[in-house]
Specification:
By secondary structure, the protein is of the alpha/beta class. It has helices at 10-20, 27-48, 64-68, 81-84, 87-96, 109-122, 157-164, 171-178, 193-203, 206-211, 218-226, 228-238; strands at 4-9, 52-56, 100-102, 126-130, 144-148, 153-155. The protein has two domains: 4-159 and 241-253, 3-Layer(aba) Sandwich (Rossmann fold), CATH 3.40.50; 164-238, Orthogonal Bundle (DNA polymerase, domain 1), CATH 1.10.150.
């Protein structure tokens, strides 16, 4: 049996539905938002037909990225208190529809999803990542696809090329140069996505760019040489970890409707 593993970026799904849900915050709003989220996840199951499934949550404890960059994700709007205190109800609702929720201490959902997707692909299975988070696009391969559940489409290599003007394999380097304001990843000052894409078109990778940085003329060369530590740090922060030790059996994540 071929494995088809649906990996749900749980808070990406939950928070978007919660924010878009009409009505004032309160018990009735929460009940309705949970019901809408379950219906949305049921639709995702129908569309993808998984053999295995899991909803992956972020740990609330700071992880390795915070250790490298204390300001990582600083300034993001906090989760609504009403939503935060009801997350266990979401997990219960997901379990009732046959999907286990996972959270690992000091581990971001992104890295846990990357690890599960990579391990699935290595076993010649197929992983479907349900998320609108651009970080997952770096994982695109023949056996790993990214599903934008809200627009009902797969975000493929063509999408990456059209949106960012680079290949999926170059996305980590793109954001190492351009930075990412959402997560407070620094990058190079005054180097946006378009400039970063042009640099990668010429040099192909950050490694090659830095090896040639002494020969880049003008303010651009000067700026890059000045910010080499920030480039290397940003590259490390944006790269997803795909080798987390899980200690779980894939059979426990089999989808049972």
């Amino acid at each position: 049996m071929e494995i088809r593993f649906l990996l749900v970026d749980a808070l990406n799904l939950i928070r978007r539905i919660y924010a878009a849900h009409p009505g004032e915050e309160g018990p009735a709003h929460t009940d309705s938002a949970i019901e809408s989220t379950v219906h949305s996840l049921q639709r995702a199951v129908r569309e993808t037909g998984p053999t295995h499934a899991a909803c992956i949550f972020d740990s609330h404890e700071p992880g390795w990225r915070h250790a490298l960059l204390p300001t990582y994700k600083e300034g993001r709007p906090p989760m609504p208190e009403q939503l935060h205190k009801n997350l266990d109800r979401y997990k219960t609702a997901f379990l009732e529809m046959g999907i286990t929720s996972l959270v690992f201490s000091q581990t971001e959902a992104d890295d846990l999803i990357a690890t599960l997707a990579t391990k699935t692909a290595q076993k010649n299975g197929r992983a479907i990542i349900l998320s609108t988070d651009k970080a997952f696009l770096q994982l695109l391969s023949a056996n790993i696809r990214i599903r934008d559940h809200f627009s009902k489409r797969d975000l493929d290599r063509k999408y990456v090329q059209e949106k960012y003007s680079v290949r999926p394999e170059q996305l980590v380097d793109l954001f190492a140069l351009a930075g990412d304001t959402t997560n407070r990843i620094p990058g190079v000052p005054k180097v946006g996505l378009k400039t970063a894409a042009k640099l990668l078109l010429k040099y192909q990778s950050v490694t090659d760019l830095l090896s040639q940085s002494a020969f880049i003329e003008g303010k651009m060369g000067e700026t890059i040489r000045k910010h080499i530590p920030e480039i290397k740090l940003s590259q490390q922060l944006f790269q997803l970890k795909a080798d987390i030790s899980l200690g779980i059996n894939l059979k426990t994540l089999r989808y049972r409707s």
